## 1
Amino acid sequence: MSIAKRPNPLFRNLNAKIAALPMIATTLVVFLGCSIWTVIYSFSKSRALPVNEFVGFAQYERLFRTSRWLISLENIVIYGVLSLLISFVIGFILAALIDQKIRFEDTFRTIYLYPFALSFIVTGIVWQWILNPSLGIQETVRSWGFENFTFDLIANRGTVLYALLIAGIWQGTGFVMVLMLAGIRGVDREIWNAARIDGIPVWKTYLFVIVPMMRGVMVTTLVIVAAGIVKLYDLVVAMTQGGPGIASEVPAKYVYDFMFARANVGQALAASTVMLTTVLIILIPWVYLEYGKKKAQR
C-alpha cells in the first residue's frame, strides 16, 4: 500500500508567497538595510554628509552628556507612562460601557474612534488653539467675566507636557477602546452566564474574570501604543515646537533637528539607534509571547 507524499511546506500557498515577494524585498532593503546603515554610521564622525571616519562611542557619549537629549528622554518616559495608564483605563471603561448593548452603539463607537482618524498634525493644531491662553479656554472664560481665571498649560514649562498628554489621549483612547472591545467580545458567553448564576457583580466580572482572559489583547495593545509613543514627533511640532524653551522636547524631534537643521548626521543617527533599541526592547518580548510559546506548545 503506497503512502501519499506530504507536500513540501515550502510550496504551500505558493501564489500568496510569490505575491508577497515585493513587500518582503522592500522591507528588507528599506527597513532592515536603512536600520543597519543607521547603526553603522552612528559610530562615525559624519556631519552634513556621511563619512567613513569612525570614532567609536564618541557620538553616544556626547548624546548622553547633552541636557537637551536627557530632557527629551525624561519627557517621553513621563508622557509614555501616563499615556499608557490613562488610555488603558479610559479605553477599557468605554469598551465595557459599549459592551452593555447600549442604543446607538455604532454611533458612539464612531464618535470615540473618530479622533484616531485625524493626523497628529491636525490634532496638535486644534489643541494648540484650544489651550492657547490668548485664544482658547482661558480667554473664553475670562470674556465671561472671570478675569482671574488661568489655564495656561501650553505656555508653562512645568505643565506643557500635560497639554501634549491631553491631546494624545484624546486622539488615541478610541483606538485602545476598539481593541479592548474586540477582546471583551471575544470572551466565551458561557463565562458571562456562569458569573451571573454565581451572582458576581458585573464590575467584578470585568475586573477579575474578563481582564485576566484578555492578556493577548492587552499585550498587543501595549506594544502598538508604546511603539507609537517612542516615535512621537508631529504632535509636539504642531502644538509646542518643543517649547517653551526645550520643556517639551522629545527624542524624535531631537533626531530631526540634528539631522536637518544642525547638519550633524552622526549625532542624529546615534539618537535614532537609541530609539530603535527601545522599540526592539518593546517588540522582542511581544514576539516571544505571541509566537515563541505557541511554537513550543505544538
## 2
Amino acid sequence: MRNDAGRTEERLIDIVNGWIAREAPLLPILNEVQASFGYMPENAAAVIGRELNLSRAEVHGVISFYHDFRKEPAGRHVLKVCRAEACQSVGGREMAEHLKRLLGLDWHETAADGSVTLEPVYCLGLCACAPAAMLDGEMIGRIDEQVAAEIVREVRT
C-alpha cells in the first residue's frame, strides 16, 4: 500500500502529464494542483520542477508570486477583503479592521475551527460599490457594520 506522500506524488505527476504537451503548462498545472488538493503540497515544487525540467526554485517562485496558491488548506469559507485605494477612500481600511476584529483573525489566517480564511486582495473591480469583499467567489459591495456582521454570521454557521 502506498503512503500519502507516494499518492500525492502520483497525483502531481498525473496532473503534469495532463498538461505537459501544451505550451507554457506551469500555471495551468499549478491551478489544477490547487483545485485538486485545495493547497500546494509540500513536495509540489520539487515534483513539478522535475517533471517539467525546471528548478524547484523556478516553480516555487511562481507559486509564491500568486497569492491564491496556498501552503495549507483554506477554511470552509474564504473571505477576501479589498485593500485598494478606492475602497480605502470610503472607509475600507476601518471596515477591514472591523472584520478582522469580528473574526478574530489577521490576514492570511484561518480560524481554528476551519470555518473561514481571511485574505487581503488589491482590487476586486467593485470600486463603485466600495468598500468591497468577496466571500466564496461572490462579490459583496457597500460593506458597513451590518453587512460585516452578516458575513461573520454566515461564515460561522
## 3
Amino acid sequence: MNKPLCAGLCLLLLYPVGAMAEGPFDGTWKVDMSKVQMPRKPDVLVLKDGMYECKTCVPPVSIKADGQDHPVAGHPYFDVMAVQVVDAHTVKETDKKGGKVVATSTTTVAPDGKHAHVEFSDSSNSNGAPVTGSAELKRVAAGPAGSHALSGSWITASMGDMSDNATAITYKEEAGMLSMSAPTGQSYEAKMDGTEAPYKGDPGINAVTVKKTGKHSMVETDKRDGKVVAVLTSTVSADGKTMHVLFDDKLRDRTMSFEAVKQ
C-alpha cells in the first residue's frame, strides 16, 4: 500500500470536525466505521522492472523497489521510503522520517487480482501510539502488461480494525473559542469566526480556521504553509447524538464522508 493512501486514510479519519456554540459539538466523538464512505477516485500504482511508482501521490513517487531506503521529497510525513517485493502478490512498504520508522504497510493482492488486503501501522502524524488497522482494496483498472500484481488503479472498498486513537476526538466550545484534542496528539484553539489559528501536533497542518454556518453546522479549513489542504463541512443531528462530516481533500482532489457518534 502506498504511503499517501495508508497515511491518507488515517489522516482522513483524524481530521477535526468542529464544534458550535451552546455545545452541540462539545464532548468526545467516535467515528462509526460502518458509516465511512471512502473516496471513489482511485490511487494509481505501477511496480514493474524493479521500479515502484505512485502516480497519484502528491508529489508523485518513483523509486527502486529493492527493499532499500530511498529519499523522497515534498512529503511532510516522511522523507525516506523503502518498497520490498515479498512475492508475486505481496509488497511491503516502510516509511521513515529523520531516520525513524514512521509507517509500515503490507499489501497482499488476492489470487483473482481483483481485490487486495492491507495491514498498516502509522505514527507519522501521531505523538503517541501508532494508528493501526487494515483495509480492503478493489481494483478498478489493470496495470501495464508484465507488471507486478500490485500495479493498477485501486479504490478503498472498506476499512477495518482501526485502533481507537484513530477514530476518537474531543471538542470544547467556550466564549467563542473551539478547542480540539485527539489521542494522537493534534490540537488547536480557534475563534469560531474564521480567524486563523495555529494547528499543533501534525507535520502536514500548521494552521486552521473554524467558521459557523448554522446552529448545528460549521466549516473547518486546514492549511499548510498558507495553502489549503482540506475543508470539512460538519453537521450535528437534531437529537445531538450523531455528526455527519464531509471531508474534501484539496491536495489529492478526493472527497469522503463519515458519521461520528457522541460518547
